[in-house]
Structure formats: C-alpha cells, structure tokens
Amino acid sequence: MGLLRPLFAACCLLVAAQVCSAERSFTILHTNDWQSRLLGFGPNNEFTPATIGDDDTRGGVARLATLLRQRRAAAGEQAVLLLDGGDFSMGTLFHTVTRETGGELRLMSELGYDAATLGNHEFDFRPAGLAAMISAAHRAKGEALLALLSSNLRFDPTSTADDSLQAHDQAGRILPYKLIDRGGIRFGLFGLLGNNAVAVSPMIKPVTFADPLATARSMVAKLREEGAEVVILLSHMGVVQQADGSWRGEEVELVEQVPGIDIVVGGHSHTALAQPLLVGGRTPVMQAGSEIQHLGELRMRLDEAGTPQLVDYQLHPIDDQIAGDAAITARVEDFKQVVSARMLAPRGYAFDQALAKVDKTLTRDFDDPILANLVTDALRRATGSDLSFTGNGTIRDNLIKGRYGVQSVSDLFRIAPLGVGELDDAPGYPLIKVYVTGRELKSLLEVLLLAYQMRDSKSYYPRVSGLRFSYNPWRVPFDRISRIELGDPLKGYTPLDLADQRLYSIGATSYVGSFTWLVGDLSKGLLSVQPKDAQGRPLSELKAAIIDADPETPGVQEYKEWQGLLDHIRSLPDIDGDGLADIPTSGAAAEQRMLREASLRPADLYRYAGPLQWGVSAVLCAGLLLGLCLLRRRRA
C-alpha cells in the first residue's frame, strides 16, 4: 500500500501534465484571397463536388467545408481558430451580386471563420459597396457574422461617401482587434492592409489607411495589456521571393520591426507556402495560395514560459479527393441563379452557358501572348477603335483548357472581372474611346513601357492590339520606342508617320485609359498627351470618353469590358461546327506585339527619336569632345 500511493500520485501528475500540455496546444486553420472563387479552379462545367475521382479541378468552397470538418475533428480537444488574410471577394461572377447577397461573407460565417481582414479588392465597389456587402451578410447571418478586422482603417470626417461603411465600424462589425478565449488560451487578433495593397486600390477613397508599422506597434501593446498570450496578425500585405531564394515583402519586414507578433496569417501575393517563413527564427508568416486551392494548418504549443512554439505545418490541397458539402453546394447554386437573373439574362447570357472551346490552356505569361491578344482584340472590336491597350495585371485569370476545352460564360468572365461603373455603379470597368496624334501615341507607349520597367512588375506589362512596336533599351528612358507599326497580322502593318497629324482612336477600359490623362504627370512634364474626341476637341475628363452602348436610350449606357470580351468570343468562327466558337491559338493569334530590340546601330538609336534622345546624345558628344581636348592639352 505504501508503494501504491507514490505510484498513484506520479501517475496523476503525469496525466495532469499531459492534460495541461494538451490544453496549451492550438491549431490555426487559414486561407487567403478567396476572390469569390466558390467553384473549382478549372472549367466550371467540369467541377463535380458531389463525387470524387472524376475531375481535375482544384478548390471549391464545398470541398473546403468538408476539409474543415475533417481537420477540426483531427484537432480533438485543442483550441482551433479559422482565419482569413483578405480579398475574399472579387474575381468571378459571384462578386457581381455580392452587394445584394453578401455571399462570400455568409459562406465564411457558415464555415465557422473566427475572423478575416479586409483586402484591397473588398473596396473595388468603393466603400459604399463594401458596406452593402456587409449589410446583406448581416441581414442573413445576424450576430453569427464573422468578425472583420482592420486596425489601420480610417474614415474621412469631411465626406459622406464612407458613412455607410463607418456605420458598420460603429456597430462593431468592423473591429480594430479582437480577443478570443479558447482552450484555456487568450488569443489577440488584429488586421492590417499594407501599403502596396492600398496603392493598387483606385476605388478606396475617401477612406485611408494609417501606417502599418505604427499601427502594429500600438495593437501589439494593446493586446498584451488586455492579456493576449498569442498575438496574431491578419495581414493583407504579401511576401516576395528574392533571386537568392530568400523571402522579403511587407509581411516579413513588419515582423522584423515590430516585436511581439507571434503569428502572421498573410495574403495579397497569392503565395502558396509549403512551410511558414520563420521570421527571426520564431514567428511563422503563412500564406495558403489563393482562390480556395489550399487550406493551411499550423499546430503550435505554448512552452513553460508561455512562448508559442511551432509543432508542425501542413498545406492541404483542396482537390477532387474531397467530396463537397451538399448544403454548401446548394447555397452556391442559389447564388448562381441570382447572378444569371440579375447580371446575365438582361445581356443575353447565362452562368453555365457554354460559349467557346479552346485547344490548350492560355496563360498570362510574357512569352504566351495568345490570351492577351484575345483580350486586346476584344477591346478594339468592342470600342470600334484603331488600336487598344491594357496592362497584363488587368487580365485576371488563365483560360484553363481542362479535359474538354469547353469554356462557359462564368469561365470567360474571370478573365476580365474587375471594376465598377463611372456612371452606373454596375460591375465591370466601362470602355472608353479617345483620339490622339501619332506623336502622342508614341508618348503614351513610352510611359506604358517605362512604368513596366521601373515597377519591375508583371502587372504593368503592356498589351496592345492594332499595332506592334519595338523598344531599344540602349536609348534614353521616355524615348526608347524605336519602331511603331499600325495594323494587324491579317491586313498587314504600316509604319507610323510621326509627322502625320491624323488622329488615331484608342479603346481601353476606364481604369487603364485613365492614364492617358496622366502622361504629363507621370513623365514629369517631359511628354504630353491631350485626349480628344473624333473632331479633335480636347476631352477634359474621363467620363466624357465613355462609350454609349445604346445611344437610343436616354443617358449613357456603359459598355463593360467583360461584356465586350464575351461578345467578341461569341463572334469568333465555329470552325468544327459543334455550335461553339473556336478560340484561335496559333498563327496570327500568337504574335508578339511588343519586341525588345537592343541595338547600338545609329538607325535603331535614332529612329523616332525625340528631344530626349537627341539631347542626351548631344551632351554625351560634347562631353567626349571636351574630354579629348583636355587630354590633348595634357599631352601638349
């Protein structure tokens, strides 16, 4: 009996230690950049969430629901948090009705998300649009609506344009931080929108965002004061891999400068990190790719000193091996019906309508121009212009062949999904048409080219139709265009005569076309472009250039980019007679329209040269002559 008591006490202590250890462990499940991708990543007509092993698509919110249920069960008694790094909206037809349905936020609430931060695309319908989205979700979910965290969001007291969003902030639906007590651990959460994300949000005004670093320092201090044992940042900032394989970016740099952040659930750069980036050797920075293709799972424990320690991490693929949740599938089908009724039917389309066929996947890569040519050709046709242009970043999705190549309306919409009207507030960038001279066209191309080279970003890579051009990197910035030819590969090309004063029409979206008015500012006054109408009269503002799709109806009926793309694709020939347009993928459809021609030949150095190239050349020649004179004097 004397031996049994100590043995029993030791067993009790061991069990207690194990229980304590289990109680001090926790799991973070996370996603980011949903971008309204509620269906699988691939042709939507091939997505079969009810069954497994019969499609190649990845993702789908119904499959995510099943995986979440499995991972929560695997965590047992551990504390589990489900978090998102922002940009849950914008990118598919579902976002076009999100102001009416609040669909993405409703689904996140039903899946049990504890919190999400706001990404830049949440503001694509302006602050009032985000407010409408939250209102719709709140009407459906009430107090079960997930928490939205935005610590550096600031409202403008002099404007009424953000009042509806501020009302949600005042009602506690948008919070600067949140404390969650779960599994015997107090978690402190806060959210930040990064500087780059703000910079690429043209519709974000009048709200502003305070400095992330200063905000993070104050939030960490506040959360620690309120007893947070684990401080988690929901960040929409991004990470970037360097040439040497190391990782930088706003999320890494912020953790380096702000002590006290234990975990970062990131977003914005769409990076699928197989393992967290351990900043400073201890703080995991995580991202789970984008568009519900993965679910991240971080397991951690608190050591005896209360310091979070990494146990393990998994980036779970969401694919055809996971059967989708039937209730969530039904909810998505309901949203599809709303999209068809409100958005598509009035324009002669339907969500699942098969429209075209493609014989291979078309990407947005620089050396794969087919998709970009398709988009810019559509812009030129829709606007009835001599030429058109856009930036690579406005082409938002690859055209995925899948097993059969059939592309539905919902698949094709994803290529050009962004924007909101200038005059009608409806989804999609409106198309504009302006006129410029040949010399102004060169100036416009110079700015587009230099913006891409200076930003070193794929988003700014110029895409054009109705012309092809070459640039010489040995020439002076803002004077590098060495060849411009107007036309197309079917009708042929003609060299542009800069001395000809005729006007050339340019078609573009309101977003990309707005840069036409900014050439002087962007070039620091070195170049100038004055957008004009067909009669050569200056256009003072972008709204005056918006195309009226139905002049017979009072007011201006905006012609949206996405509809112009669908109309163009539907008009393509049905070569094999199967009732579907065939998207061309070879020959003229695959031509490169921007060429790099590095050359020191005088003809290439001075063709189309302006004052900048000649002026710098004159200075260099004068300097060379002066140097030779000084050298001769020394020798004399």
Describe this structure in words.
With 636 residues, this protein is of the alpha/beta class. The protein has two domains: 21-326, Metallo-dependent phosphatases (Purple Acid Phosphatase, chain A, domain 2), CATH 3.60.21.10; 353-597, 5'-Nucleotidase, C-terminal domain (5'-nucleotidase,  domain 2, Alpha-Beta Complex). It has 18 helices and 28 strands. The strands form seven sheets. Strands 6-4-3-2-1-16-17 form a seven-stranded mixed β-sheet. Strands 7-8-10-13-15-14 form a six-stranded mixed β-sheet. The chain has a four-stranded mixed β-sheet with strand order 21-26-19-22, with helices on both faces. Helix 4 packs across helix 5, helix 5 (126-141) crosses helix 6 and helix 11 packs across helix 16. The longest helix has 25 residues, at 611-635. The radius of gyration is 28 Å and the shape is globular.
